[in-house]
DNA sequence: AATTAGAACAACCGCCGGCAA
DNA sequence: CTTGCCGGCGGTTGTTCTAAT
């Protein structure tokens, strides 16, 4: 086992050689994917299970596409990242031939810098905890305090301080969802399938009884959940509602 | 030609959730 | 219910390549 100290010491690291690749390939051909803990022994490799798995998934697996990302792929990555955040495996799952590592690397080296560079220095106002005066109509109307101060933002997206935003942004959410739905209809991506099985999105999203449960509703529900300020901040940082870069045109 | 900085890619690490014992 | 193992994920680091000086 890999927790054996002697074995740990013998575990090889660093770049894979052609010989190692061949051994791994033969092993997977013979036994199939899975049971990664057995792969090093079966293949006769001095690598840990994770290293073998990674090498197979990111490099040796058939149908892996190499080379430059096409415009369509880049567009899809941007859209999916907007929707899913750094869920590279989910994003990669919608881009045939690309691995999560590829997508992640491409994002970090190409898109992250490009998209984070503001065009006209927009200032996004993110929701902050606030105390309303008792006389506030919102309080007087006995609205759910958890929804106060967030509802506007969640319904319409972030408010830009420069104030010259028209109604387009208010419609932005349905529009880009519509685009994704179109993709769904093409059989590339399904909203249901996009629900991750890990923490965060998957667990935060409500049941999609009708198959297409759009975000505005689900986020209103999110706002009522016991979510911390830090978590909220992260959600905002994950670009779910960050429209400072319009990638849909 | 040599050096250096930045980009691009490959691999590692730590953590998490699922699951079986 | 707890514990340990496994597969999987995202963040980070290391290495190689390439263009600029």
From TrEMBL:
Residues 8-60, 61-111 form the Myb-like domain. Activates DODA1 and CYP76AD1 in the betalain red pigment pathway. It comes from Silene littorea. It is found in: Nucleus. Residues 8-64, 65-115 form the HTH myb-type domain. It comes from the Eukaryota. The keyword Transcription applies. Keywords: Activator, DNA-binding, Nucleus, Repeat, Transcription, Transcription regulation. GO terms for molecular function: DNA binding. The keyword DNA-binding applies. CDD domains: SANT (cd00167). One of its GO terms (biological process) is regulation of primary metabolic process. This is Transcription factor MYB1. Gene3D superfamilies: Homeodomain-like (1.10.10.60). Pfam families: Myb_DNA-binding (PF00249). GO terms for cellular component: nucleus. SMART domains: SANT.
């Amino acid at each position: 086992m890999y927790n054996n100290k002697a074995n740990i010491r013998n575990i090889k690291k660093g770049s894979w050689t052609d010989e190692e690749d061949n051994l791994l390939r033969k092993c997977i051909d013979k036994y199939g994917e899975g049971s990664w803990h057995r792969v090093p022994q079966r293949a006769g490799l001095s690598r840990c299970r994770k290293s073998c798995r990674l090498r197979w998934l990111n490099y040796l697996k058939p149908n892996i596409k190499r080379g430059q990302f096409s415009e369509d792929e880049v567009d899809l990555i941007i859209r999916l990242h907007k929707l899913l955040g750094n869920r590279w495996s989910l994003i990669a799952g919608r881009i045939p031939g690309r691995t999560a590592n590829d997508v992640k690397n491409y994002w970090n080296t190409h898109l992250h810098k490009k998209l984070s560079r503001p065009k006209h220095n927009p200032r996004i106002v993110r929701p902050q905890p606030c105390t309303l005066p008792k006389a506030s109509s919102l309080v007087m109307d006995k609205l759910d305090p958890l929804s106060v101060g967030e509802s506007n933002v969640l319904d319409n997206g972030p408010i830009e301080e420069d104030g010259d935003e028209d109604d387009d942004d208010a419609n932005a959410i349905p529009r880009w969802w519509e685009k994704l739905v179109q993709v769904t209809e093409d059989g590339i991506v399904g909203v249901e399938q996009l629900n991750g099985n890990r923490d965060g999105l998957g667990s935060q999203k409500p049941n999609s009884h009708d198959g297409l449960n759009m975000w505005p509703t689900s986020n209103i529900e999110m706002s009522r959940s016991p979510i911390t300020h830090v978590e909220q901040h992260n959600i905002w940082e994950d670009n779910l509602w960050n429209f400072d870069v319009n990638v849909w045109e």
